[in-house]
Amino acid sequence: MKSQRKEIISYFKQMDRRFFMDSNKDLATFDQALPIGFEQTISQPSLVLEMTLALDLQPGQKVLELGTGSGFQTALLAAFSGSVYTIERIEELQKRAKERLDQLEFHNIHFKLGDGSEGWEKQAPFDRIMVTAAASEVPKELLEQLNRGGKMVIPVGSSFSQELRLIEKDDTGKMHSTLLNEVLFVPLKGKYEK
Predict the structure, then answer these.
(1) Among residues of the chain, what percentage have pLDDT more than 90?
(2) Alpha-carbon distance 31 to 28, whole Å?
(3) 87: number of Cβ within 10 Å
(4) Are 120 and 142 in contact (CB under 8 A)?
(5) 171 against 190, higher pLDDT
(6) What's the confidence (pLDDT) of residue 74?
(7) Is the pLDDT of residue 1 over 90?
(8) What is the distance between the alpha carbons of residues 48 and 170, in angstroms, rounded to a whole number?
(9) In angstroms, rounded to a whole number, what is the distance separating the alpha carbons of residues 138 and 152?
(10) Where are the alpha helices (DSSP H) in the chain?
(11) 40-42 vs 34-37, strand pairing mode
């Protein structure tokens, strides 16, 4: 499978982060997480890119995203995969993100309002899973919903210390976990909340 790394980096560089923000637009060019309301944040750009590249997206793949947030990460996923199934628990954030993504004319994004900690069983399995909030442990439901040969990027840990992990499921169904970075994300609400 050919890597889309160069294309993703190029697309990412031309993305306007301000478009995905309602306030603090003057800070959009800084490489830092910023509040988007409801105690949620838009992640720092360098981390969004790092997480996306770690997924090794391929055309035609089915991607699950937990935490639609501003829609910034969603747009990047949708541009380089077949379809994105994104879950957001805060209705107002989902509404705003959907409006932005519709404006960008994405037609391969499916939205769900609710608790994402248990994934989206009806649409499983997924080739890639992107989790943008920290779980106390890797949810077993997500591991089950990950296709063989699939990859998941997820922050795992407590509210003050988290590891960004790449989870890979090989062709036999065995899991492999790699530490990517030390991070700090908002908590994943629901079953795996500490």
Answers:
(1) 77
(2) 8
(3) 21
(4) no
(5) 171
(6) 97
(7) no
(8) 25
(9) 10
(10) 5-13, 45-55, 72-79, 91-103, 140-145
(11) antiparallel
End-to-end CA distance of the chain: 38
Q: In the chain, at which residue ranges do the beta strands (DSSP E only) sit?
A: 34-37, 40-42, 62-66, 83-88, 109-113, 126-131, 146-157, 162-169, 175-183
Cβ 152 vs Cβ 131: under 8 Å: yes
C-alpha 129/C-alpha 58 separation (Å) is: 13
> Do 49 and 110 contact (CB within 8 A), yes or no?
no
Confidence (pLDDT) at 186: 77
Asked whether the predicted pLDDT for residue 194 surpasses 60, the reply is no
Residue numbers annotated as active site: 43
Q: 180: how many CB neighbours lie within 10 A of its CB?
A: 17
User: What are 107's two structure tokens?
Assistant: 């037609």
Mean pLDDT, residues 128-143: 93
